[in-house]
Amino acid sequence: MGRTGDLLRSTDTHCPYCALQCAMTLTPGAAVETTAAESPPNVAGREFPTNRGGLCRKGWTSTTLLQHPGRVTEPLLRGADGVHRPVSWDEALGRIADAVRSTRRLHGPDGVGVFGGGGLTNEKAYQLGKFARLALGTSRIDYNGRFCMSSAAAAGNRSFGLDRGLPFPVADLDTAATIMLLGSNVADTMPPFMVHLQGARDAGGLIVVDPRRSATAAFTADGAGIHLQPVPATDLTLLLGLTHIVIHEGLADHAFINARTSGFEEISRSVAGWWPERAQSVTGVPAATLRKTARLLAAGAAGAGCYILTGRGVEQHVDGTDTATSAINLSLLLGLPGSARSGYGTLTGQGNGQGGREHGQKADQLPGYRKITDPAARKHVAGVWGVDESLIPWARPARRRTPHELGPARRRALPVRARRQCGSLRPGRVRRHRRAAPAGFPGPL
What we know:
Helix 9 (about 235-250) packs antiparallel against helix 12, helix 9 packs parallel to helix 15 (about 320-335) and helix 12 (about 275-285) crosses helix 13. The protein is α/β, with parallel strands linked by helices. It has helices at about 55-60, 90-105, 120-135, 145-150, 150-160, 185-190, 200, 215-220, 235-250, 255-260, 265-270, 275-285, 285-300, 310-315, 320-335, 355-360, 375-385, 420-425, 425-435; strands at about 1-5, 5-10, 10-15, 25, 40-45, 75-80, 85, 115, 140-145, 180, 205-210, 225-230, 305-310, 345, 365, 370. A hairpin with a 3-residue loop joins strand 15 (about 365) and strand 16. It folds into three domains: about 1-65, ADC-like domains (N-terminal domain of TfIIb), CATH 2.20.25; about 75-145 and about 355-435, Rossmann fold (3-Layer(aba) Sandwich); about 150-345, Dimethylsulfoxide Reductase, domain 2 (3-Layer(aba) Sandwich), CATH 3.40.228. The strands form six sheets. The protein has a five-stranded parallel sheet with strand order 12-11-10-13-14. It has a three-stranded antiparallel sheet with strand order 3-4-5, with no helix packed on it. A two-stranded antiparallel sheet has the order 1-2.
């Protein structure tokens, strides 16, 4: 953004917060008479498939952070007294480079870990993964999606052989007759998303699974759909009960199942004991409501379209991977994945959580969802990068614990990009390892 004479120049951009990445336009704010500074840029919603010109409060107020007194705009070096003081970029980058070189020399490439975040763009996520593997030679790279999306990713790999979040444009939801949303309160967390549920709501086909009477659940009122309120921690049983009904009432798409899936007999046996009345005894959801839900899903799949979407609420507990897998199984039985008007997806919360997985921030994946243990994938990526395949490190068994391996005995250095580790990990553990770091550890930066 800038000024050309007396004319204001606007800039089209996107909201930096959630996965919707709502489009917005910024124009410079007016000068503030009492100071030399300008007021924050003005925000206007911009037409885009995800937000249709709308924004939520986070988007409308996003530019106020530019002038927040706590915003860091220059490198800070933590001194022996614990106080952070400004230093030049040359000094900051020089210290980091020296510490990383020293750590690699003394403790090997895996003495350095790299931790990214879902706030990075595709290009930055790709470059971070390439930098870690080729420049640093470390296998210890990961990002914060390991915490929030691990169950969904494991279920996707188990069922599809691919860790994929939302495999279709969100605008595809607009024309669906039925949408089932499990474990996500999008009305509060990403309000512009609600416009994409309106079509299913108008058709009476919006199904929200949430023990609470959330704002999203309220959207099903007045005949607009069904609010299923299972007892907490019984989402898996709920899905097994729905799967039982789809199979035993003849609602499954057998043409799709025979052509594009395997394991139908095993699934049938696994849900045989979860007839509706038994599922009701565990979940608290009436058997009649379970039957109505299954029939509504099947009708949508055979008609204008049906989508099943999962969120962190059904994934982040002890049965999370199995719960997400059961949601995928239900969608496969109904013939949803790969259809032009139906599908299965898991909602991503962060600005680019999916892009982080797609472009190589995960320890076990190279760009393009390629498994790092797959010789063909390693050969392909090495060719694109113009290096010998042997230079790409292999993933280690402890990759899932990269952030927890801080300290003199394991990870000696951990550059963190676009992530606030001390706020999301156990703060005491992180601080303890930072204090125990050896000389040269770049923790003060």
